[in-house]
Design a protein that fits this description.
This protein is mainly alpha-helical. It has two domains: about 60 residues, no CATH class; about 30 residues. Helix content is about 65%, strand content about 10%.
């Protein structure tokens, strides 16, 4: 999920339940029942009372992303040079 936050540049909120779809259906069921049956009058009210977040993922800054990419490319270049050296030794 961190990759989604980084690519979109947006905060991603993760539900505390692994059954988020079922919870959403239950919220809309509570909304359909309405206050008349002792439930909720708005989806916002249902969310406040029924849902919770596990954590929030915040995207990395563009500068941090570039720094990480540069570091990884540098490692890749070193690995290519090392691999080329190993294969050259076998030919000598």
């Amino acid at each position: 999920m961190q990759i989604y936050a980084d690519v979109t540049g947006r905060e991603i909120k993760i539900s505390s339940t692994p059954q988020a779809s079922a919870l959403g259906a239950a919220m809309f069921g509570a909304l359909a029942a309405g206050r008349k049956f002792g439930v909720y009058d708005s989806i916002e009210e249902a969310v406040i009372h029924m849902a919770s977040l596990e954590k929030k993922l915040i995207s990395l800054s563009q500068k941090t992303q570039r720094s990480i990419i540069s570091y990884l490319l540098n490692i890749e270049n070193h690995m290519i040079i090392l691999a080329w050296g190993i294969t050259r030794r076998g030919r000598d």
